[in-house]
Design brief:
200 residues, mainly alpha, Four Helix Bundle (Hemerythrin (Met), subunit A), two-stranded antiparallel ribbon
């Protein structure tokens, strides 16, 4: 046997042993394919408008309003302004949510379509909400009670203006004004107090 034959025999033996070892080794289970990441932005606007309002816009607005102004109680006037850093931070977070809510309302497909109402009306309302949210957040960051109250009032005015254009007016055109008194009467003690104020 020549030197070359000996080397070749050893190489073949080594390769056969390596193949046998690989065959007997436990195989790793196949890894599931990961989620396919989109190369471009993909927006999900499936959330209905009433849920967007009920779960995003309304909670943020009501949280901000709850931390501004005063409340008349049997014990006197109570200041609703935050008294802790955590409370002011809560108002800031609510205002930040309103800023982003205004952005979300402008996503493609979100504008509510009404006859004789261009999409620009919707976008202007949404942009104003974001702009007022910026002012409201800055007021809360400064712990400025008066500025927070004014910002909350401005947000309320904008919300009611948008609702009047896109909810109330279309309903009135479709069904006409409500018949009779759609609201329950005031409780007797409240009516008596109203009458006493009127008498003064």
């Amino acid at each position: 046997m020549t030197l070359g034959d000996s080397v070749l025999k050893r190489f073949v033996t080594f390769a056969a042993a390596a193949a046998l070892l690989a065959a007997c080794s436990p195989q790793k289970p196949a890894q599931p394919a990961g989620p396919q990441l989109a190369a471009e932005a993909k927006l999900n606007t499936d959330l209905p408008m009433n849920e967007l309002m009920g779960h995003v816009v309304d909670p943020a607005a009501f949280t901000y309003w709850a931390g501004s102004g005063t409340e008349e109680t049997a014990k006197g006037v109570r200041d609703l302004s935050p008294t802790t850093e955590e409370g002011w931070e809560k108002l800031e977070s609510a205002a930040a949510a309103l800023i982003e809510a205004g952005n979300s309302l402008q996503l493609p497909g979100r504008a509510r379509k009404l006859p004789d109402h261009p999409d620009s009306d919707w976008y202007q309302h949404a942009q104003k909400l974001s702009a007022l949210g910026v002012i409201a957040k800055a007021a809360a960051a400064k712990h400025d009670k008066d500025a927070v109250f004014k910002a909350g009032a401005d947000i309320y005015t904008e919300c009611t203006a948008c609702h009047a254009e896109y909810i109330i007016e279309p309903q009135l055109k479709a069904t006409g004004p409500a018949k009779g008194n759609p609201l329950p009467d005031w409780p007797a003690d409240v009516k008596a107090r109203q009458q006493s104020y009127t008498a003064k």
